[in-house]
Write a structure and sequence with these properties.
By secondary structure, the chain is α/β, with parallel strands linked by helices. 30% of the residues lie in helices and 24% in strands. α3 (70-84) packs across α4 and α5 packs parallel to α9. It binds flavin-adenine dinucleotide.
């Protein structure tokens, strides 16, 4: 097989389709094909991957991304990568994806760039753009070993429907799991996909008590917003589930409207929301860094500002 191909994988088909859009651009430049790895039942997914640009499809039914752990998934992905020798492997930077990418790169003794924003080619060298130093700087980095294993932040690229050749490739594979499940404990989840929300209200440590969340929840409700938070609110105080926290170690969101309530705007939070279209900041401190991210700033106490905003929005909605 060629060594110029671009292979994509995600345990979420929607994210794999986004990666196919980027993969297609890169493989066209490299004069090669775009491949996708499908774990579990191929079924009608093969046609969908083809519609989104896959020329070759590697289906491994022995491993199912919905049931198996990252070790088995990584083993299957490594198997395909080592058999096909692509130039670039694109993996969606989900929790599972980041683990899989590290495993694949380590098993092939090659480089891995995580949470990238973009990938480009300099001649045939692969260059990535990614945040470094806690998200404070953007770095451009060039791979020195190949295949280049790259995780891409979700929703950086839009899935397109540019049909690929859709050739089905069968690869023999036997799972040799190195880990077995000894127990299972469900993490508390809100079940909400903040990444897809059009309006997000994010609450920070400006809130004094858990009970006061009602105030923010009511505001979010009239605004038709999903509720997000900073890491201290979910991680330290446990006032909201883990999957509501936004930032470097949490979700990346890009809503049309983002309202930061009592959020200081540390860089680790800002990297998760800086793609928002319009940002409103409510903070008592005029020097809070969040104001620099904001299109509209309200320098004031959230306990006074939120009830007023909530009732004004309610009144406007009643009139419409
Ligand atoms: C490796 C690493 C990863 C991290 N990842 C993340 C991450 O993914 N997401 C994240 O959020 N953080 C993350 N953090 C933590 C981050 O550095 C900050 O500590 C955190 O974002 C601050 O949260 P905050 O804004 O809620 O709290 P604070 O920084 O304490 O800010 C509270 C703000 O509320 C304002 N305020 C106080 N009272 C009121 C009031 N009555 N009305 C209005 N405003 C008020 C204050 O002026 C202040 O600006 C990470 C840290 C590390 C080291």
């Amino acid at each position: 097989m060629t060594e110029k191909a671009v292979l994509v994988f995600s345990e979420e088909d929607g994210l794999a389709f986004e990666l196919l859009a980027l993969a297609k651009q890169l493989s066209n430049q490299l004069g090669s094909w775009t491949g996708a790895i499908i774990l579990g039942d191929g079924g009608d997914r093969v046609a969908k991957f083809t519609e989104h640009g896959a020329d070759k499809l590697f289906v491994i039914s022995e491993v199912d991304s919905r049931k198996d752990g990252p070790d088995a998934i990584a083993e299957a992905v490594s198997h395909v990568v080592s058999r096909t020798s692509p130039r670039i492997v694109l993996i969606a930077a989900t929790k599972v994806g980041k683990e899989v990418a590290a495993y694949v790169a380590q098993s092939l003794r090659t480089g891995c760039a995580s949470e990238c924003l973009d990938v480009s080619l300099k001649d045939s060298q692969v260059e990535v753009t990614r945040f470094v130093m806690g998200g404070g700087f953007l770095a451009r980095q060039i791979f020195e070993s190949y295949p280049a294993v790259i995780t891409i932040l979700p929703h950086r690229f839009q899935a397109t429907t540019s049909k690929g050749k859709g050739e089905l490739e069968k690869l023999e594979f036997a799972v040799q799991r190195k880990m077995s499940k000894v127990g299972f404990r469900a993490v508390e989840k809100s079940g909400v996909r903040l990444e897809d929300a059009e309006v997000v209200v994010a609450v920070g440590r400006g809130l004094k008590r858990k009970d006061d969340l009602k105030l923010v929840e009511e505001f979010a409700k009239v605004l038709g917003a999903e509720l997000g938070c900073t890491r201290p609110i979910s991680g330290d105080l446990k006032w909201l589930p883990e999957d509501r926290h936004i930032g470097l170690s949490g979700k990346r969101v890009k809503p049309k409207l983002y309202v930061a309530v009592g959020v200081s705007g540390q860089i680790q939070h800002v990297v998760g929301m800086r793609d928002s279209k319009t940002v409103v900041c409510i903070n008592t401190d005029p020097n809070a860094p969040m104001h620099k991210e904001a299109d509209y700033s309200i320098i004031g106490d959230l306990y006074k500002v939120l009830p007023v905003l909530t009732s004004v929005i309610k009144r406007i909605k009643e009139k419409v």
